[in-house]
Specification:
Rossmann fold; alpha/beta; 329 residues; globular; homodimer
Chain lengths: 329, 329
């Protein structure tokens, strides 16, 4: 009886210890929203190879860096990039202070909901729209504006907050990688300050692990307080061949895993998987018109080269329709 | 007896648990190379205020960001910035491949050890020296070159490897902050890729937590493999008003503590300590001619405005001579 009691107390204490050090994935089955099959297995196999000491492909913890595209990879990107929809909403909100906008493009087209006229303004129109809505304020003011929009705006098709249109299977993947001591980064073509407004809450990714496109910032004094002002000048586009550059500039070493969905992620996948040792590249293919959207050839999220070259490059192709049990949380 | 035994086992197990969660600083006295006094106490007080739950100045872990200048704050910077000494050594090493350098400045001056002639080439000369030695190779090649130099070069005064000229009290400070769940970043006027070559080994700061000056990178294919080539074009100078910009670009939130040594760190200290809540700013003053160097008015590490305004701004001034028991490890 004595020994049983002693043993019992000891086991309880041991259990407390074990619980404290038990990683999440060992308690629950990893990736529950992923259907069983080759894709899910390839992820698990990769993680086991790089995290098992003694395995020839073992990777020390500091080098376990995984990079994720955002638009179309972690959250939806149709009918247009959400940051673009934010810009359009901002033009409408700011229009009363800009009466001249009713006569000049691209603002006239945006305010009139004239998609054709807006398209005709081309890249120049997009640039002007972005600068009018993303520059000319302090970083603190921009942050507050984006957060207010995220809290109130609704997606035109799903009628839900944009931050609820994140992909549940990808949230589980982020969690699974972090439980295995990966550091997860976003490497987005979107504006870095825009993505940082929701990355921590939506994905558990802190602002210092978000890489993205950047406009110029200027340090100034306003009312005796220092501020950073956003200027209408693009200094870095974190897309296509810009993604490996963004990775090197911000992270300074080559990640071992990359996740994308469009040809804008091609060079990122190429750079990451060209490294020595075990590497992992994955492309999310939007082929689920019922639960989300089916596309790979339009202006947004075009996936052509990636689709063709994925097999020969050893990149895993995810069919949202077949590989994911659910899309949104 | 039974109950004593039971209790004993339980206490042992509890002790194991406690040991597992005990932070390092509670076992050893923090900051052993700092002399007791107001400076050391101000650091400890700050850390205790922001880490004690219930304290009005408590700061949640994700926001515990501390930024450190490198040259003159974490390692020495005399008789010249070590990256400059690297550039000079590289000119000598590369000279056989550049016979033209014996007739053109600033290379002629460097090769002839003619400091006066080099000084006469001004900022243009420094820029040309830096570009000739820091650009035109891949990131991988540059990394190998710097690491080789760090392993073999010796400081002209101390005749020791440059990476041994780090400040022991600052290493302890980094460790103390990290033991209290701070994330420590370097924010250096030096080249980000240069500093990353030793930051992890010398300071325990991984490359993704190094912010610095940057030259342009270009993604290319060489021999069927992707590379990032360093181009002779400066894209960002992370000094003076550039430091808050670098912090916002790379970290995306305002740190709560900043450590510097020169007026190049003034805006960083200003930006950090102007935030709301508890903030900490500290300036290392080089006033120890015997153990290191005494300077604050030369071209390197000039500290004038910082020295004058530190008291009214509440920034802590460290006298290396009086506050540090030892300088180097």
């Amino acid at each position: 009886m004595l020994r049983t009691k002693t043993l019992f107390v000891f086991l309880v204490a041991l259990g407390m210890l074990a619980a404290a050090i038990q990683p999440v994935y060992a308690i629950d089955e990893p990736l529950p929203s992923w259907n069983d099959g080759a894709v899910k297995q390839s992820i698990i196999d990769f993680v086991q190879r790089v995290t098992t000491e003694g395995n020839p492909y073992f990777v020390p913890i500091p080098e376990r860096i995984a990079v994720f595209d955002n638009d179309g990879t972690l959250w939806a990107e149709q009918p247009a990039y959400f940051q673009g929809l934010f810009a359009i909403d901002r033009v409408r909100a700011l229009a009363p202070q800009h009466p001249e906008w009713t006569t000049i493009q691209p603002f006239q087209a945006v305010l009139a909901n004239d998609l054709k006229a807006f398209a005709a303004t081309g890249l120049q129109g997009i640039a002007e729209l972005m600068m009018a809505t993303h520059a000319g304020m302090t970083t603190v003011e921009f942050d507050a504006t984006v957060k207010d929009w995220l809290a109130t705006a609704r997606h035109p098709k799903f009628n839900r907050p944009y931050t609820s249109l994140v992909y549940q299977p990808m949230l589980e993947l982020l969690e699974y990688l972090r439980a295995n001591d990966f550091k997860t980064f976003i490497v987005s073509g979107g504006g870095v300050e825009f993505v940082r407004c929701f990355s921590e809450k939506a994905y558990g990714i802190p602002p210092e692990q978000v890489v993205g496109s950047m406009i110029k910032l200027q340090y100034e004094q306003r009312d005796g307080k220092p501020v950073l002002v956003r200027l209408p000048e693009v200094v870095f586009i974190d897309d296509n061949a810009g993604k490996p550059v963004g990775i090197q500039s911000a992270i300074g070493r080559r990640p071992i895993a990359a996740f994308g969905n469009s040809d804008g992620d091609f060079e990122m996948l190429e750079w990451v998987t060209a490294g020595s040792g075990e590497r992992f590249g994955l492309i999310v293919h939007h082929d689920d018109a019922v639960r989300e959207f089916a596309y790979d050839s339009g202006a947004i999220g075009k996936l052509d080269r990636g689709l063709r070259e994925a097999p020969q490059r050893g990149w895993v192709l995810v069919s949202m329709k077949n590989d994911w049990k659910k899309i949104f949380p």
